[in-house]
Amino acid sequence: MPIHEKELIRPEDLRTHEQLTVDGVDVSGHWSTFIRSRVVTDYNEAMQEEVAALPGGEFIHRCWQCGSCTNACTVNAVNPDFNPRFWIYLVRMGMEAELLRDKDIVWQCVSCNKCTHICPRDVNPEGVMKAISHWLELKGHTPKSPAMVFDEVFSDQVIRRGKIEDGRTIRRFFARTGQALQQDWLIEMAKRLVRHLPIGLLARLGFSAAIAPRTRDWSRARAAIEEYVQAEHAAQRSALGLDAPDSPATTREGA
Amino acid sequence: MSESKTDKYRRVAYYPGCALEGTGHPYNRSTKAVGKALGLDLVEVENWNCCGAMEVKNVDPKLQTYLSSRVMSIAANQMRMDVVMAPCNGCYHNLKKAEHDLAHDPASAAVVDRLSAKAGHPAYQPGQVESIHALEWIKGAIGEDGLRARVKGGLQGLRIANYYGCMYTRPRNIFPEKDAGPGSESTAKPHFMDDLLAAAGAVNVDFPLKTACCGGAHTLSDSDLSTKLVLNILNAAEAAGAEIIATECPTCHSGLEMHQIRAEKRFQRKTQVKIVYFTQLLGLALGLSARQVGLHENVSASRELLAGKGLG
Fold first, then answer.
1. Which of A208, A243, B23, B247 gets the most CB atoms within 10 Å of its CB?
2. CATH architecture type of domain B2-133
3. Residue A150 is nearest to which of B25, B55, B303, comparing CB atoms?
């Protein structure tokens, strides 16, 4: 593969010398940095197929490595280490050890869809980011990310009742991620909201908090959805060569 | 074509979605008030459910397709409506995504058929309804000329940065009607909100971050990133000379309000620009009161600024 990946150069493999003489010539200064060569042998040949078996990863094989996704990426502009094009390359090459060096930031994709919008090959890089995050979690390389916890808390409410209520979602998310609900900025926000005494709104929010909004006659839809999600998750685990989960991911929360 | 929309959008199925019943309530209130003031008929989708928002797809994308398809199925098969209007970008995006997937992906259609049968309602068939955003609704049913004729007083040259967010224009494949020549919406430089607010008497500033991301998907799970992204938007709007950022999505709106405060509290970065739903601004231009458009339900305090211009 004729792509020169500067990201594949590990900082610990850079060798810098204050004074260096090569074949009797003094090359101190700019010419004093060398990259120690290394041989990669531990390719994970199943990696692309496993990521492609997870939702969103289906079209990873289409990638041409043009880099439009990384160029358009919202998160890359804030953190240059967030590099969708590179991660797609690593998954396709099966360079698992390299991918694991970035395992803790892949979940930070904000789903702005700039990549999927611009991609000339319809790879759906946004979906691939989600598939890689799932893959990392399912394989046990990373704990469940805060984003995934939020997605589960949210989806669980939708599956149970057909609708969600903001306050409940926020409270449950903070509880599951071990954060205090009394964040200074949330308190300030609440203060500014009540300043204009929006009685109707407060009554409405209070009512929703007490009696969760729900879609009527939802039980049949709920049963069908729960059965479907369980089957899908079992199929995904099996595609990754994993045992069945202890408990289905979406029915873990209490109502 | 615009004439057919004038008729077609006069009476639409209204899908407010979960956010508009909670923190996004001022958007709900002002959308209904503006509809009423313009003589447009909103019939709420009966016994609707959540579209899946930005979260369900990460648990299972086809489940999101089913959830959104159920809403369109009710509108089409139970209510016999031709158009579903959603003011929320997330809802609008998901209805369009479901429409696209059901027409192009047999696997998604099979899942929707199966779940619909088990849930006991007809499966939605692509093409049964047209899903539109509140911007397309007002632009199609009333248009700039119609709005100009109805405006009372107008927005008095209020300087506005129009913020559309992500879900209204991306990804391109689910919006086949955009980028379709004269009169259509642009995915690169959307202008429907600009057009409507200009017709209502506002001055649109040259705002480069119209479709930048506010980090709404991670507003709580990666708050520092969201605050940074929101600060970019707030700062750019102020640099462009805007007094107000007009929004058309409850997640963006709440995100901007929430992280404007968070930036103050955590990063000591204070910004003055106010955040107001475009329907609230249109309502004020049409002569509605601050209370009728729900300004008192916003976190961002814009009443003084607007009252100073004789609005509300």
1. B247
2. Up-down Bundle (1.20)
3. B55
